[in-house]
Amino acid sequence: MISKQKRSRVYKKSKQKCVFCGSTNKSKFTIDHIIPLSKGGSNAIENMQTLCQRCNRDKGDELNYVFISREFKHVIKFLRIKNNKRNEISTTTT
């Protein structure tokens, strides 16, 4: 269990928002270990960050860089699909 004082310090360190998506909905905040305890991380404040419930659930016990690179691949795929659809529309209208 993380004390209220430590939780408050982590929120302040994360500028009162989810470090991944930027959500500021404090009722949905969770404390996440940057290096998960299951991978040798500690309960030090330096190893904690604020995540919203959705980002924390999606990250699971991955390291930040693994989660971010996986999410980045999804964004790139989405943008390619969107761009291809835009190109299809522009070629059919000209």
Task: Give a written overview of the molecule.
This protein has one domain (4-93): Orthogonal Bundle (DNA Binding (I), subunit A). It contains 3 helices and 2 strands. With 94 residues, the chain is mainly alpha-helical. The model has no long low-confidence stretch (mean pLDDT 86).
What attributes does this structure have?
elongated, DNA Binding (I), subunit A, mainly alpha, two-stranded antiparallel sheet, 94 residues, 11% strand
Q: Uncertain regions: pLDDT < 50 for 5+ in a row?
A: none
CATH architecture: Orthogonal Bundle
Number of helix segments?
3
**Biggest sheet descriptor:** 2 strands, antiparallel
- Class of secondary structure makeup: mainly alpha
Number of domains: 1
Estimated share of beta-strand residues: 5-15%
Number of strands: 2
Topology pattern, helix = H, strand = E: HEEHH
End-to-end gap: 62 Å
Chain-averaged pLDDT: 86
The rough form would be described as: elongated
Strand order of the largest sheet: 1-2
CATH class: Mainly Alpha
* CATH level-3 fold name: DNA Binding (I), subunit A
- The level of helicity is 40-55%
Radius of gyration: 18 Å
